[in-house]
Structures are given as structure tokens and as C-alpha cells.
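Sample 1 of the test manifest.
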Amino acid sequence: MLEIKNLHARVADEGTEILKGVDLTVKDGEVAAIMGPNGSGKSTLSYILAGRDDYEVTEGDILYNGESILEMDPAERAASGVFLAFQYPLEIPGVATMTFLKTAMNAQRKARGEAELMTPDFMRRVKAAAAELKIDAEMLKRPLNVGFSGGEKKRAEILQMALLEPKLCVMDETDSGLDIDALKIVADGVNALRSETRSFLVITHYQRLLDYIVPDTVHVLYKGRIIKSGDKDLALQLENEGYGQIIGEAA
Amino acid sequence: MSVTELRPRTPADTALVSLAEAAGSGEDARRAAIEALRREGLPHRRIEAWHYTDLRNLMGRRLGGNQLIEAVAAREFPQTGTVLAPLVAGSTVVDLDAPERASAPQGVTIAATDDLADWHESPNHLDRPVDTVRLVSAAFGARAATITVAGKAELAAPIELRGGIGAPSHSAVRVSVGDGATATFVERVEGGGSPAPSSAVSHLSIGDGAEVLWVIDQAKDEGAAHLGQLNVSVGANATFKLFLLNAGGQLVRQEVHAVTAGEGSEIIMRGVNLLEKDQHVDVTTTLRHTHPNTTATETFRNVLMGGHGVFQGMIKVSREAQKTDAKMACNTLLLSEDGDFSAKPELEIFADDVQCGHGATAGEINQDHLFYLMSRGIPAPQAKALLVKAFVDEMVEELEIDAALGEALTGKIDAWLEQSH
């Protein structure tokens, strides 16, 4: 599904290097967790995967299903199946949530050469997915994310993910700002989407999320490199010992 | 006295006076205005109220050479007289060239008058002692009408006001809305170009407790010039809502001058200015709070693909207007390096217990918003269009007006956005 090879990247404006040779492979159907202390480059990695042009890749490559995506813009990557669930979903005044959802779904369908969704079919899909995530109809009548609480925004991200049916889901600190009930709803939403043909890259600070979304692999990102990989027990070890031990070993 | 002062005349001044003299009948009544126009000439950048819209210079470019004089002699102005469908189906259409022909709904009287606009004093605080827009209106003998809405009348459909469809057209209307009445007026500003500007001067008097929505839908043809002025007095506990759309013309100045006429009045002004290459569009407003407990919100959103936009907004709060709450904002989206925008917000406050604020912003599309939409698969052009539309559609939404009218206005905005992308 995803092969990140010796990826080096810097902030486009000022040239600060953030990623310094990331190597990571995620197989079809795998849930890979990326953990790491603040400033290790986790969010940068997620933005680069989604195609944000604030970052410049200086070396290495990102292969998605065997092909490099570095030359693709964010919309092309999305249409090919890459989805980023934002740590801080943006509020966009004036853009109605339903209009946005329909535009996005149909833009992706169009890019893939599929017929556009008719309104009744679209409405049916939104209602079903929203019910699963306990999102009420009133919320969907508002402009995109405007006035949503932190938890509502994260649920709205998962709603988009469910509707857009991506192949590779990158989740950037989806647990931040969620209380335990909201976390369960979000995790259930994610787990419902797990399948043999869909992979997840779950970026998080804390092991807590991984109690609900159980990963197949866990990778520690530190100073722009993956310094240790393991299975879900590695997350528990980090929870108990902190990052110090592993960072010490790597150095 | 300025009357005796000799001012240099430019070809534009001379040409405009020639055009006024040739503008049909009623010259005796218009004589004083024509002489004042000859004497005062067009305002220029050293007149503060016209600093960003140097009419003498801008008209000079339009009226250059002998083309104009020839046009006057031959009376060869382009006529683009297609009959328009009303903005909202079921509206009462008043053709200001022949107002007596309109079929007035119950509670409304419509009549023609010979009154010329009073140009002896300008409602614009930084202007000359004469008012340019009214002076042009009077010198050209604007067709005038009066419309009266009876107290407590509730008009179901808008009254649509149309100046002369051909060019050049000059109209003046006095509207009086009685206490407790509800009415919507749509001013259609359409039509072709001529060397001289068309003009529309309106006076709106809103009775106590009445609610009036006034829409100015300016969609002049490419190459046309237009001077508009709306003067409003808002009665006690009355509401005045304005929506101004500028989506056409080459040289346009629209002034709105509103004054409170009683306690508790509310003014809500929203506007959208859409500009392309070679357009000059100026919106100049003054809000005068002269009574306690009045509120005003004023927001203009501008989208520039080019051209030069101007916003001048003045909020004046007099000593007795305590508890005034007035806010003004002007936000500009610059989508081309060729476009520029001048914003001049002003506050003049003499009361000590008020809340007043203003803000002006100018920038490009928010890159974070763009990335978010694109990350969901929406291609860049479509994502940008969605964000631009959101930026301006909010102005219509915030007015909370009748759905059909709101849709008609967003439809007009959409049409402009689609053809300019």
C-alpha cells in the first residue's frame, strides 16, 4: 500500500529540515501507529503524505501502490484514495457542510471516471454514516466545522472518511481534545472501516487511542527518523517507560 | 465666494455640460443646475470625498477628444433596450421613465413629479458645497417619481425600480414608507454605455417601526458609467436593510447616506463588489447616528480579478446618540495582481457611551482552507471557486431575507463568478 523511502523534507519557506530519512512500509489492511514526542515530525509526515506544499521533499520517495505520489497535488492524491484526518479540522464559514460533502464525493468520483451521485443516493449515504457516528442533522446544516466542538469536528472528519471510502487513512492525533466517550465513538467509526484493502497510519502521542484502535505495527518517530518498530506491545512499553529508554538505545 | 473663483475647465467638464444642455426638454428648470455644473466642474482628487475616484480624470478618459461632441450632435448613443424580467417573479415593476403606468399594489401610490434633486448641499462630509451626484441628476433633468407606502401596509412582493433602460438614463425617486409598514425595493441599474454617466438618486424615508429592505442590483454593461446615491432616514424602532451588488459597469460610484430619525433604529448594510480588469467601482457610505440606542452593522466584501475598488465608510455619532452600537467592515479578496483596492473607514464620535468599530482586510485565498478542501479531492479551481462564493454569499445570508430574493442575488453572484473564472 505505502512505502516511504529515505524521505527527507524541509519547511519550504525557511529550509528547516524536519524529516531526515524516514523509512516505513504499510501493507494492505495494516494499521500502523506512529508515536513520538513533540517535534519529532509526526504532523509534518501526515501533511507531506496529503500533499501540502508548505513542505519540500528534498530526497527519497513516497510510493503508494507502487507509484510515486510526490508530483500529485492534494486533490489528485485524495481521488486516488489518500485521506488525512486533520488534527485541527478547519472551520470554513460560508461553505455548507452538505454542499462540501457532495462536492468532494462527486469530484473524487469524477476523477476516477465514475458517475456522479444523485441527491437521494447522496442523502441516504450521509444519513446512514452520520447515524453511526451519532452526528445529528442540525450539525450537518451548519457551515463546515463552524461552531463545532472539538469532538464534533473529529467525528465530522470520520464521517468524511466513511463517505469518501479512502484506501489509505492518515489520522493525525485524532484522539487529541476528545473525552473518553467521544474517543470511543471515533474509534468505533475507524474500526468499522478496517478492511483487508484499507490501511491506516495512526499518529498519536498516547497509547490510550491504541487501546481502542489496536494497531498491527507501532513505529517510533524521533528527530525525523523512525528509530524503532515493533508490534502493539511497543506502545505499552512506551506508555510505561516513556521515550527516554528507546531514544537512548537509538543514540 | 467660490462662485466668482475662476477654475480651470477640462475637456471633460465642457463635454459634460454640453451633454447636459443637449439632454432633452425642461431646460429652464435645469438651467441653475447646468450653470452650477459649468461653474463647479467635476470633482477631482484634491476634493477629499473624491480622492480615490477622481471623476474629472476618469471622465476625461471617457470623454476624450471630439468623439463626445460629435455624439451629442448626432445623438448616437447605443441603445440596449431589452425588457428585463424582474429580479423576483411577481414584483411590481416601476419604470421611472413612466411611473404613472405602473400598477400599484394596495396601499401604494406611485406618481410622476418634476422635482429635481437638491444639489445645494452635499450629504458627503468631505465634499464641496454642492453635491456632484445630485448635480448631474438635476442638470440632466432626471425623470422623477414619488412612491408612498401607507402605514402598516405589508407588501408581499418587491417593488422593482428601473431607470431608463437605454442610455444615458437619469432617474430620481422619493420613497416614503409609513409607520409600521413592511416593504422591499429593488433598484435595477442596467443598460448600455454612453460617454456620460447615467445617474440614480433616491430618497427613502422610513416611518417609525417600519421595515424596509432596499436592494441595489447594479449590472451595467461593460463600458458604462454610473453615479448612484441613496439617501435614507430611519424612523424610531425602524429597520433599514440594504443589499448592494456591483457586478458591472466601467466607472461606478454608489453612495449610501443613512441617518437615524428616532431612537432604536437599526441599520443593516451588506454589499458585494465584483470587479474585473479596467473597472473602477467606488462605494461611499455615511451613517449618521443622531439618536440614542441605535445600531448599525455594515459589511462589504469585494472580489477583484482586476480593476480598482474603493470603499469609503463614515460612521458619525452625535453627542446625544448614546448607546450607539455601530460596526463596519470591508474585506477584499485579491485574485489577481492587477487589482487594487482602497479602503477608508472613518469614525467620528461625540458621544461617550458607544460601541463603534471598523476593520478592513485585503488578501488572497486562505491557503489552509484551500488545502483542506483539496485534501478531500476537490480540484484547485473548484475549491477556489467554492471559497470565493462562500466569502461573498455570506453577505446575502447575513441579511436573512426572503428565500426567492436571496437565491436571485446569489444567482447573480454565481453567474459573475462563473464567467470570470
